[in-house]
Amino acid sequence: MKPEELRSKLGGVISFPVTPFHPDLSLDLDGLRKNLRALLAHPVCAVVAPAGTGEMFALSPAEHLQVVETTVAEVGGKVPVLTAVGINTPLAVEQARLSAKAGVDGILGFPPYYPGANEAGLFDYYSAIGAATPLGLIVYSRDWVNPSPAGVERISRIPNLIAWKDGQGDIRRYAQIIARLGDRLHWIGGAGDDLVPGYYSLGIRTYTSSIANVSPRMSLELHEKAAAGDSAGLSKLMSGYVLPLYEFRARQRGYEVTVMKEMMMMLGMAGGPVRPPLARMRPDEIEELKRFTEKWRSWV
Q1: Is 174 an active-site residue?
Q2: Lower CB density within 10 Å: C or N end of the chain?
Q3: List 165, 199, 246, 255, catalytic entry
Q4: Number of domains in the chain
Q5: Can you give the CATH number for the domain in which 149 is found?
Q6: Which secondary structure element, helix H or strand E, spans residue 216, and what is its range?
Q7: Residue 111, preceding peptide bond in cis (omega within 30° of 0)
Q8: Residue 188 lies in a domain
Q9: Exposure of 197 by Cβ count < 10 A (0-12 exposed, 13-18 middle, 19+ buried)?
């Protein structure tokens, strides 16, 4: 898929599937296929696998490629498939090239390992990823990658860079970046379902959803109500479902993945344990989450 074609398809909800594991922490590819079949019954606009919610950092290069190949095969061209690459330049380039050969439609550039990189170093890093394939590139601004509007403008010179995914949740900063670059890039809200109201107030109409793992219907409803300016309907969903879930996830670092996997298993989907250093939930928290999850069944 050419970069501009991919860009034209990025409207609505982008899903970030978890990577299911067996109890021994090996890949559960059959579980991944099962989850993808359920997901694709809903009109998400793209799938990214593996990414942060998919524990990309916990996978070996061989496992990363297995997840990519399984996802591409299961999706079967119904929607674009992207993959996340990162950690260091040689690894990111290798992941991008192998994933392109496996049939992905685009690349999501995660931050490099070094938290002190300046904007010139970040430009070189993302340029190398962009040059690795002719596919469309999306930069994921999260953790320590938080360039200034001028820095984003510099990175936008990468020829096949098509979109910017915000993972900071700083609406003021994102508004400044959008104002400076206009429609040079496609803008994606990427810090969480709980920030849909803020992102859509900026005119953004694409966001990445981890809630889509348990309820694609809920994710799509959030997009539709926010895009239509239905503030009352959106507020009801946020206060009744989304904000309580994000509050639960915020109890411990890493719970943004752990909680979603536990919910998925409670709802009959494949999840399995998380890999270290992500933390598993305590038994009392699991019992609490079971009661919490019952409210979501009508949305599954």
Answers
A1: no
A2: C
A3: 165
A4: 1
A5: 3.20.20.70
A6: helix 216-228
A7: no
A8: yes
A9: middle
Q: Contact 119/146 with Cβ under 8 angstroms?
A: no
Residue 241 lies in a domain: no
Q: Tell whether 278 is covered by a domain.
A: no
Catalytic (active site) residue 140: yes
SS (H, E, C) 143-207: CCCCCCHHHHHHHCCCCCEEEEEECCCCHHHHHHHHHHHHHHCEEEECCCHHHHHHHHHCCCCEE
**Neighbouring-strand partners of residue 82:** 48, 106
Active-site position among 126, 140, 174, 246: 140
Residue 264 lies in a domain: no
For 20, the domain range is: 3-229
pLDDT digits (tens, 9 = 90+) for 219-272: 999 999 999 999 999 999 999 999 999 999 999 999 999 999 999 999 999 999
pLDDT in tens, 16-37: 999 999 999 999 999 999 999 9
